[in-house]
Write a structure and sequence with these properties.
- It is a single chain.
- The protein is α/β, with parallel strands linked by helices.
- It folds into 3 domains: 164 residues, Rossmann fold, CATH 3.40.50; 183 residues, Rossmann fold (3-Layer(aba) Sandwich), CATH 3.40.50.1220; 189 residues, Rossmann fold (3-Layer(aba) Sandwich).
- The strands form 4 sheets. The chain has a 6-stranded parallel beta sheet, sandwiched between helices.
- The longest helix is centred in the middle third of the chain and has 24 residues.
- The relative contact order is 0.10.
Length: 586
C-alpha cells in the first residue's frame, strides 16, 4: 500500500516510469510517506543511511557503479542542508543525482515549528533544475505537479548530466498508507542530444594547419568510448594527449607529464609548448599543467562543451565547441584522413608508378612537425622513473598501485591520495573515481561504500586520515560489502600542508592547519565488521598486501598504514629533486 498523498503518488509513479529505482533513504517522519511508498515496492532498490551527508555521497557511489541516475531522500530542516556537499560534488562531476527533500507546508516556514527552514530552491545554483511541488488540491495542481517532476527528472541528463532537486511539502496527517496502486501518470520523454560538426565551420582546416597539437583530457567516467579515437590522433596524427588517471584513459607514453613540467629547463619547456590545445572532460588535478598552458605562447585553445558553457580553466580559451567529445574527435580523425587522401591522390596524378603514399606524407612533414612534437614529449616522459624510496605514504601508494588486480575499481580520496597516485602506472582495466567536482575531503569514504554496495567488482579506496575520520559515518550503515578494500594512510594529520612552501613555516601549522592527531581506525573498523590490518613498516605492508587484494575475503578489509608527516614530505621532495637532476644530466 502506498501513501495517500497525491504529490507522493505522482513522484513515486514517475520515478518508476523513468527507471530511477535506486534510492538512498535517511530516516525521518516528514519523509515517511515517500520512504514507505518506495520501500514497500519491490521495483525499488533501497538503501538506509542515517547520516544525510553520508547518504548523499553514498548515492554518488551507486551512480558511479550502475551508470544510472539514483535518488537520495531525507526529512525536512537541517537534514536537507546536510546534502549540500554531495549535491555540489554531483554538479561539478556531472552525476545524475536526484535529491528529494520533504518539507513542511509553506505556511509553517518561519513560524518556529519543528524542523522548518526555507528549503525552496536551496540548491538552485548547484542543480540543473530545482522544483517546489504543490500539495495538490485539484486537477490543475496535479497536472502542475506531474510536469514539475518530469522536468526535474529530465534535467538529470539534458545534454549535460547533473543533480536535480525536488522539494515536496507534506502536511499532517503523514501516516496514511491506504492507496493500493499507483496512478497512471503522464511521462514526458526527450530525444538524446545530437551534434553535427560541419566542414564549413573550419575546425578541420585549422586543426590541420598546426603541427604542435595537444589534447588535454580531464576527469571522465569509465566506458566513455574515447580511447580508440585518442590513440588514432596520437599515433597517426602526432597529437600529444595528456590524460590523468581520473580520465580513465590509458596513455602511458605521456602519463607522467606533471613530473616533466617540474623537471625540464625553460628551453626544453618551450620545445614542449603546443600551438593548438583542445580541452575536454572535467577537472584537471595537475596545477603545473594549468600554469604551463596559462603562461605558454599558444595560438588557440578549444574547449569541447556539450552545453555551450564557457569553461576557461587555462585562461586561454578561443573557441567553445558545442559538441559531445566523441563526435568532435571523430570529426577530426575523419577530416585528417580525408585530407591525407586528397594529398596522396593529387600527387599520384604526376608519376603514379613511382608514388609511395606513406613515404610522401612523411617527407612532406616540415621540420618540427606533428610527429617530431609527439616524439619530443614521448622521449621526455620516458626519462621519468616511478618513485622508489623509503617507507612512507608514497611507498604505500606505489605498493598498492603495483598490486591492483585487473578490472578492479579504485576510489581516491582528495589531496595527497589523488596527487601521489598520478606518479604511478595502474592497469588500464582499473576504473578510477574521485570526488573531484569540488575537491572536498568530505564524502570520499561514503562514495566508496556506496559504489561497493552496488557493484560486484573488487573496490579499493585509497584515503588519507583526515578524509577518513571526517567521514567515519560512511561505515555506519548495513552495506559494507565484502568486496570493499580501504587503504588508510594515517600520518597523524593533513600532510599536504607541510609540503606547501611558506605554509610549512607557520608556527601554528601542526595544531590548527594540519590538525595533528593520534586517532586510529582499529576499534571503529572492527566494530563495523571489517577485517583490520595495520602496517608500521615496509615489511608489514608487503606481508599484508596479498591478503588485502585477495578476492576470497568474507569481510571487507581495512589496512591502516602508519607513517610520519616529516618522512613523507622528505620522500616527496627527494623524488622530484631526483627527476630534475636526471634532466640536468641529459
Amino acid at each position: 500500500m502506498y501513501s495517500e498523498k497525491r504529490n507522493v503518488l505522482q513522484l513515486v509513479a514517475l520515478l518508476k516510469a523513468h527507471g530511477i529505482t535506486h534510492i538512498v533513504l535517511s530516516p525521518g517522519s516528514r519523509n515517511s510517506p515517500i520512504v514507505h511508498s518506495v520501500a514497500t515496492d519491490s521495483d525499488f532498490t533501497c538503501y538506509s543511511v542515517v547520516d544525510e551527508r553520508s547518504a548523499g555521497f553514498f548515492a554518488l557511489g551507486v551512480i558511479q557503479a550502475t551508470g544510472k541516475p539514483a535518488a537520495v531522500c531525507c526529512t525536512s530542516g537541517t537534514a536537507a542542508l546536510n546534502l549540500g556537499p554531495a549535491v555540489a560534488e554531483a554538479f561539478y562531476q556531472e552525476l545524475p543525482l536526484l535529491v528529494i527533500t520533504a518539507d513542511r507546508p509553506a505556511a509553517w516556514i518561519g513560524q518556529m515549528d519543528g524542523q522548518t527552514i526555507p528549503q525552496t530552491h536551496m540548491f538552485r545554483e548547484i542543480t540543473r533544475k530545482s522544483v517546489q511541488l504543490p500539495q495538490i488540491a485539484d486537477d490543475e495542481e496535479e497536472w502542475f505537479c506531474n510536469r514539475l517532476i518530469n522536468e526535474a527528472i529530465l534535467s538529470l541528463d539534458n545534454g549535460v548530466k547533473g543533480p536535480a532537486h525536488i522539494n515536496i511539502p507534506l502536511g499532517e496527517p503523514l501516516f496514511g498508507f491506504n492507496t493500493p496502486t499507483l496512478p497512471s501518470v503522464r511521462v514526458i520523454r526527450q530525444s538524446s542530444p545530437g551534434y553535427v560538426i560541419h566542414r564549413e565551420d573550419g575546425y578541420g582546416e585549422r586543426f590541420a594547419s598546426y603541427s604542435k597539437r595537444m589534447i588535454i583530457v580531464g576527469q571522465l567516467p569509465p566506458n566513455h568510448g574515447l580511447n580508440e579515437l585518442l590513440e588514432k590522433l596520437h599515433n597517426k596524427l602526432g597529437v600529444v594527449v595528456l590524460a590523468e588517471q581520473l580520465s580513465n584513459i590509458s596513455m602511458k607514453e605521456t602519463s607522467n607529464f606533471d613530473t616533466i613540467l617540474y623537471a625540464v629547463s625553460d628551453k626544453e619547456r618551450e620545445e614542449l609548448t603546443p600551438e593548438l590545445v583542445i580541452t575536454m572532460g572535467g577537472h584537471i588535478v595537475s596545477k603545473r599543467l594549468k600554469q604551463f598552458i596559462r603562461r605558454a605562447d599558444i595560438s588557440e585553445l578549444w574547449r569541447i562543451s556539450p552545453n555551450g558553457e564557457v569553461t576557461d580553466t587555462f585562461q586561454r580559451v578561443t573557441d567553445i565547441i558545442r559538441s559531445d567529445n566523441k563526435t568532435f574527435l571523430h570529426y577530426l580523425t575523419e577530416f585528417s584522413s580525408g585530407r591525407e587522401n586528397e594529398l596522396i591522390e593529387n600527387k599520384k596524378t604526376s608519376k603514379p608508378e613511382e608514388f609511395d603514399g606513406a613515404k610522401y606524407i612523411k617527407e612532406t612533414e616540415k621540420p618540427g612537425g606533428a610527429a617530431n612534437f609527439r616524439e619530443r614529449w614521448i622521449k621526455a616522459c620516458a626519462a621519468v622513473s616511478e618513485p622508489a624510496g623509503a617507507f612512507s605514504d608514497l611507498y604505500a601508494i606505489g605498493a598498492l598501485m603495483q598490486t591492483l588486480p585487473e578490472n578492479a575499481s579504485l576510489q581516491l580520496g582528495n589531496s595527497n591520495s589523488l596527487r601521489l597516485t598520478q606518479l604511478f602506472d595502474i592497469p588500464s582495466s582499473v576504473k578510477v573515481f574521485c570526488n573531484r567536482g569540488t575537491n572536498g575531503i568530505e564524502g570520499s569514504l561514503s562514495t566508496a561504500v556506496g559504489y561497493a554496495a552496488a557493484s560486484d567488482q573488487l573496490s579499493f579506496l585509497l584515503i588519507g586520515d583526515l578524509s577518513f575520520f571526517y567521514d567515519m559515518n560512511g561505515l555506519w550503515n548495513n552495506y559494507r560489502s565484502q568486496n570493499l578494500r580501504i587503504l588508510l594512510n594515517n600520518n597523524g594529520g593533513g600532510e599536504i600542508f607541510g609540503i606547501l612552501p611558506g605554509l610549512n613555516k607557520s608556527e601554528v601549522l601542526h595544531e590548527y592547519i594540519a590538525a595533528t592527531h593520534t586517532t586510529e581506525a582499529k576499534a571503529w573498523a572492527e566494530q563495523q565488521g571489517f577485517l583490520y590490518l595495520s602496517a608500521h613498516n615496509a615489511e608489514e605492508l608487503d606481508r599484508h598486501l596479498p591478503l588485502f587484494t585477495d578476492t576470497g575475503s568474507e569481510k571487507p578489509v581495512l589496512l591502516e598504514v602508519f607513517t610520519s608527516m616529516e618522512e613523507n614530505a622528505e620522500q616527496i621532495r627527494s623524488y622530484y629533486h631526483q627527476q630534475k637532476n636526471i634532466f640536468k644530466l641529459n
